[in-house]
Write the structure tokens for this entry.
Amino acid sequence: MTPRTRPAHLPLTALLAILWFGLWAVEYVLVRYDHMGTLAGLPEGWGLWFDALPVWTGAVLAVGIWGGLLGAIMMLARDRGAVLILAFAFLAMLVVAVWSVLSPAGPRPLPGFDPWLVLVAQVVVPALFWFYARSMKQAGALA
């Protein structure tokens, strides 16, 4: 693949990453400004997990979410810096997930909701986007 070649799946994957991190960003803003009631369909008590976060964990979560969104936008713009930004986002989400598992509160099941699924997705999906961006950089699709 030449450096100027862009595979058709690059913008599609970047848009999926923007959607993923964008939804996390919307949720983050709604939780931080106490508007979780506006999201119909979320289980009762969903926002309590965010309230239990220590300040440092909330900051790391913000780095993961907003960094991931920035990395996804950079990937859409074919900027190779997306790889580093998405790596930081992945690591931040991993730290938050590990803290969630090891904290005394731990992930608590809510009616009709499996917190383990969210924790796994919170780490695996950003890792996949990071690996994808890294492979696109190695292939020369990100300049």
The chain has five helices and no strands.
